[in-house]
Amino acid sequence: MGGDVKCPAGCGHMEYKKNRDLKIRAWDPLGSVFYLAGLILIVSYTEVGSGEFHPRAIVGMLLFIPGVYFSSLVTTDLSCNTCTGVILESKSIDKKLKGDLLGLSENKAEYIRTALSSSTEDSEYDCPDCSKKMSHIIVPIERERKAHEDPLLPDVVADLTSKSDTVKIDGCKECDLLWFKNAKSEQKISMDTAIITKT
Fold first, then answer.
1. Quick check: 69 pLDDT over 60?
2. Tens digits of residue pLDDT in 74-121
3. Phi, psi (rounded to 5 degrees) for 164
4. Do 138 and 167 contact (CB within 8 A), yes or no?
């Protein structure tokens, strides 16, 4: 998208902002080496229950932390400073909304594009690129349940269970862009722990 992009909610102009998401891993040669080396050192030299850290485990932590930072996903997305709405364009959709490595869940980008193509529900928003009405979809996701969300479940059980949720998305299939009314809904579906189960 070129030129000034206006917020679909009518707030004004949107700005391109670089975002680093520490919850999503991306390929970075240096970051990946630090990340893996740190992880190996931590696992190899940490004695469970001893309460002491081996010096090499500490070195592992010092490698792991910058590894996580450098190997995290960086995208440049359109953001609205007023309503916190976010527009994802083609490259960001492919980078942020992918499936799991083992292929056990749906590829989120493909699922959303297919759902937009078959959607009969018009959005209340116009596409900021072509000015046509966008389509509206509701995407079902499963996400990891945190132990503190359900205090009645034992920690072991809570860690193994998932929580169903939905994300409302407006998008233009012709322009291949997605509009999220706020940054939280975009982050909810972008997280590595958020998956769309295969039917």
1. yes
2. 888 899 999 999 999 998 999 889 877 777 888 999 999 999 999 999
3. -80, 145
4. yes
